[in-house]
Amino acid sequence: MNMLERVRTEVRRVDSWRSVRQLLAASVRYCEDRAVVKGFLPGQSQYRKFVVVSRARTGSNLLISLLNSHPRVDARGELFRRMNGQSVESRLDEVFRRRPRRIEAVGFKIFYYHPLDDQRSPVWGPLCGMDGLCVLHLRRRNVLRTLTSRKLAGSTDIWLDRGRGGSAKAKPTVRFSVRGLEAAFEQNEAWEASCDERFRNHEMMEIYYEDLVNGRDVPEHVAHFLGVRPHAMSTALRQQNPEPLAALMSNFEELRLHFQGSRWATFFDDG
Known about the structure:
Elements: H1 3-37, E1 43-44, E2 48-54, H2 60-68, E3 73-78, H3 88-95, E4 99-100, E5 105-111, H4 124-128, E6 134-139, H5 143-156, H6 178-198, E7 204-208, H7 209-214, H8 218-226, H9 245-248, H10 252-258
Parallel strand pairs: 2-5, 2-6, 3-5, 6-7
Antiparallel strand pairs: 1-4
């Protein structure tokens, strides 16, 4: 075994152990939470309530995973992805119920366009009207990477990378039309502006995916914003598409030339 293979093996071992450790921690947390619900352990509701507002392929799984590695934070997934006939109030009551005494912050994530099965569902009203709700607005500076990642995930049906190694398969490339990209860029701008307007009266922290991936101090700032005690946060998730966009898009150069001089030109300045 050469040196490179040894390094790869050690990385897989570390990532595998990190995954197992997080799974065990999640199991313990679940049992503890159930014990509070059943009345076997004392609980409390004096924690910080928060919501992560974003869109798909912007790092929300990464952020939620990091938050859940903090022993005093309980971060849930897409609470309002589909309503399935349930009320908004019942969902909120379920997530913001009594929790173990050690929990200091509880929240979940929601995408701009949720719920998917009932656009008339009054989800946003109760959220915006909730006193003391903290908002983590998760964005991505390069929206083209978000769109490319979304299209690739839809093509390969691979939505998460837990860094477990295995055989590497050649990635497909994606293709966009000019009109399609223009519409997608404008839609993203509208969604982000709508979030800022909806939660203008709430404490809000803006987080960028690029900083979350590259900046080691971002989780620390998030913990401070949520008012929880300092603690090292980690995740087994890995960036899925680190390659240059030109390697992921079949008509990258054509689109880059078209968008030169536009307000979206910087999306194509990609290493």
